[in-house]
Amino acid sequence: MVAAGLFTAILAAFFSAVAGSAALAPAIERHCTKMDCADQLTIRLRSSDGQPPRDVEIEIEIDGKTVTCKPNPSAGQTNPFQCEQNVIVTHQEIQRCRGADCRGTGSFEQSIEIPSTPRRVRVRVKHGERVLGAKTFVSQYARVHPNGPGCAPVCRQAKRTWRYR
User: Measured between alpha carbons, how far is 112 from 69 in angstroms, rounded to an integer?
Assistant: First the structure.
């Protein structure tokens, strides 16, 4: 009985010492960078022939609200569309990279950037009244930590690619 009491006292002293030394141990420092991020859905459109679109209009239905992106020739090559509701459509040549060496492929894509996390997006690419393609996206978003795990900010982002025509 005395031995059991002595054993319990020794265990209590041991765990008390361990807990005390853990409290004195320095906290693990977290090294966070200061990059920003935003919630966003990006949809890359690629025509089957890989050529840049000529006079196409892009209609985007974002959770039931329609946004129209029309050709804007005066905006230059990289941003040839004018959109509503803070939606941005850029135009770029698709790059093939090996390490730091990137080369143009001769094929092009339009990148739709929606600055929110819509549940459902329907995209229609039209030339005049002719629909070249239509597709609905239901996105699942990944949590993005641009400054490392446990560091702010945390954003939700998703990327999709669609080949139409």
Answer: 10
